[in-house]
Amino acid sequence: MKVEKIRDLTLVSIDNQNKMVISCDSCGSIGLKSGDVFKVDPFYVGRFTARVALLEVLCSGANIVCITNAICNEMNPTGKQIIKGIKEELKLLDLDDVVLTGSTEENFITTSTGLGVTVIGIAKEDKIKVNNIDCSCILVSIGIPKVGNEIDLDNDIQIASYKTLDKLLNTQGILEIVPVGSKGIMYECEQLAINNGLNLQIYENSNIDLYKSAGPATVLVAAVKDNCLKDIKDIENLNVIGRLIKGEK
Fold it and tell me: What is the C-alpha separation between 223 and 214, in angstroms, rounded?
């Protein structure tokens, strides 16, 4: 069995045709408890923590089969609200029937909210979009980097949506897609270049902050073949930010 760690993904070869794709995310001190730094309903803690791990696996081209929640608080009321949020995020993906399992902390009283989420998916070996770039291509970002109270929790069209991701996954010429979180757009672009053995060129006139945290994956970065950019030009908040270049310095 071959196990690889690539970016925030763990890839496990199941057989010659299938790979297991695993991702996780954590969240701490965000909630309604006395020790929480950022006050927000635990429902959104569940939603957005799940979103980060779900996007990592979905961007690889995998189908979700299981999601786990490690809740570092009591089931009632915090855990119930977190689980409700996770289920709402799954509902947005039409994944109501995906296995959701987890654990809560019932032995001790907690003063800060904590959550860990793990998502497991299965991808076809010949369809997986990880380290899949074999030519020079365009880099685009989709969405606006946002974090904390900058995010409209229920209706923010500036956040890259699952509908947008679905369009990217079903557009020919999209070579690789990665969600952007706290490390910013530039970091993810650099990782794409390193992991694919390519050189990175960032355009100086980019009109988006490449270093700002994108919080709960409010931005996607996609590597696009030159002749396919026209097919995604209509996506909202799309910015052409640079290129990945093969065999040049």
Answer: 18
* Preceding peptide of 145 cis, ω within 30°: no
Place of tokens 């990217």: 168
Q: Decide: 4 and 10 in contact? Cβ < 8 Å.
A: yes
| pTM attached to this predicted model | 0.94
CB-based contact 82:43 (threshold 8 Å): yes
Evaluate whether 161 touches 211 at the Cβ level (below 8 Å).
no
CA 77 to chain centroid, in Å, comes to 27
Domains by residue range for the chain, with CATH: 3-124 (3.30.1330.10), 137-245 (3.90.650.10)
What tens digit of pLDDT does each residue of 225-244 get? 999 999 999 999 999 999 99
How many Cα atoms within 13 Å fall on the side-chain side of residue 163?
A: 7
Which residue has 């946002």 as its token pair?
A: 146
Q: What is the Cα 168 distance to its own chain's centre?
A: 14
Task: Report d(CA 101, CA 188) in Å as an integer.
Answer: 30
**Nearest to 57, CA basis, from 137, 129, 150:** 129
Give per-residue pLDDT as tens, 152-200.
888 888 898 999 999 999 999 999 999 999 999 999 999 999 999 999 9
Chain-wide mean pLDDT for the chain?
Answer: 94
Other beta carbons within 10 angstroms of residue 106's beta carbon come to 10
